[in-house]
């Protein structure tokens, strides 16, 4: 044993790192190595090494859109190849302060927007959870009349990271330098809610940044857009941010067609682009189809496709990976680049899942790793 330890000490650092890259069960193994001594902690915690282990943002799993129980727990289901490993995880293990009764709504870049139980009933309360560092930021209350029938389905919810709101930023721009992981990573955010005001019979834009103490409300930004009408529709959960502009899909029930909604994250100006007409009824959009934007381009539509023995339904997309369910209550991931499909083995059999019922999670696992490691040295 002493000879093996001496040999490990004598190895060059680059050789040690190459060995560590080949370890099985990488996150816990690297954590144990980092705890061995200060020198190994410096090796494992190096940004260039961590980026070789995990890209900046990866699809790690999903959670059902259900109320958390009195213990504040929620199933976090890992997908194949996730840094989470195998086995269901409790959401409270990432955000210990997450209140019971919270309902997950939407997530992006490690930020999770949840709706909280509120009192009085004429207001709605939200919070933004940072899954990287485990914080929960409770937002100022919002009038409930801006939320159509208290129903999440008829409103648009977007949570944006600080990088999303930078003009000229692009998710795929490899020339931009990566910030070093830290406990304050992604501490800034912006929440965007487009809610149907039942008093004015029109959509309103509500925005709130992490440094603000009250919501900003706008109605004039919808002039000459698909949302400037007394009709409701369905927003897709999936948002694409490209060069400071957020894009997502809106199904207008009045026109019976789909639009791409474009929001400038800095000026908050809104525009829409009408898509070619589709003969399918919009009233069944949630149950029969799911709209996905890829890289901000005009979206494509994947309907439920029948195979010989099963019916496939698209649940969403993250980081170039689709999440798909079938009529046998099984869930799969499909890589858009390779076309390969893998079954999510931790999803319980016999549990039916439909579009709009889960939140897909992406994380910067290098930041999670460094954050957890830092707590051991405080």
TrEMBL record:
SMART domains: FBOX. It comes from the Eukaryota. Residues 11-53 form the F-box domain. InterPro entries: F-box-like_dom_sf (IPR036047), F-box_dom (IPR001810). Pfam families: F-box-like. PANTHER family: F-BOX DOMAIN-CONTAINING PROTEIN, OS08G0203800 PROTEIN-RELATED. This is F-box domain-containing protein.
């Amino acid at each position: 044993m002493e000879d093996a330890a001496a040999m490990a000490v004598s190895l060059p650092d680059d050789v040690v790192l190459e060995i560590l890259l080949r370890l099985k069960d990488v996150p816990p193994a690297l954590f144990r190595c980092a705890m061995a001594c200060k020198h190994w902690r410096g090796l494992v915690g190096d940004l260039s090494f961590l980026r070789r282990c995990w890209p900046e943002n990866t699809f790690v799993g999903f959670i059902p859109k259900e109320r958390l129980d009195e213990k504040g727990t929620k199933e976090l289901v890992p997908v194949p190849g996730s840094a989470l490993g195998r086995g269901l995880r409790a959401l409270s293990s990432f955000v210990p302060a997450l209140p019971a009764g919270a309902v997950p709504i939407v997530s992006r870049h490690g930020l999770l927007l949840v709706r909280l139980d509120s009192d009085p009933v004429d207001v709605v309360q939200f919070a933004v959870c940072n899954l990287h560092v485990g914080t929960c930021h409770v937002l100022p209350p919002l009038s409930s009349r801006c939320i159509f029938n208290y129903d999440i389905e008829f409103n648009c919810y977007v949570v944006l990271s600080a990088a999303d709101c930078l003009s000229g930023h692009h998710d795929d721009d490899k020339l931009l330098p990566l910030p070093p992981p830290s406990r304050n990573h992604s501490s800034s955010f912006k929440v965007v809610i487009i809610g149907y005001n039942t008093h004015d019979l029109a959509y309103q834009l509500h925005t709130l940044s992490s440094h603000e103490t009250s919501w900003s409300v706008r109605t004039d930004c919808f002039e000459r857009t698909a949302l400037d009408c007394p009709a409701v529709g369905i927003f897709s959960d999936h948002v694409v941010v490209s060069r400071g502009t957020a894009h997502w899909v809106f199904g207008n029930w009045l026109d019976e067609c789909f639009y791409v909604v474009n929001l400038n994250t800095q000026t908050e100006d809104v525009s829409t682009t009408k898509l070619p007409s589709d003969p399918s009824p919009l009233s069944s959009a949630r149950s029969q189809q799911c709209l996905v934007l890829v890289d901000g381009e005009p979206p494509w539509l994947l309907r439920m496709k029948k195979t010989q023995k099963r019916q496939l339904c698209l649940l969403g997309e993250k980081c170039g990976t689709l999440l798909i369910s079938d009529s046998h209550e099984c869930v799969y991931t499909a890589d858009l680049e390779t076309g390969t499909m893998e079954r999510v083995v931790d999803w319980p059999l016999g549990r039916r899942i439909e579009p709009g019922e889960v939140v897909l999670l992406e994380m910067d696992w290098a930041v999670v790793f460094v954050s957890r490691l830092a707590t051991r040295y405080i």
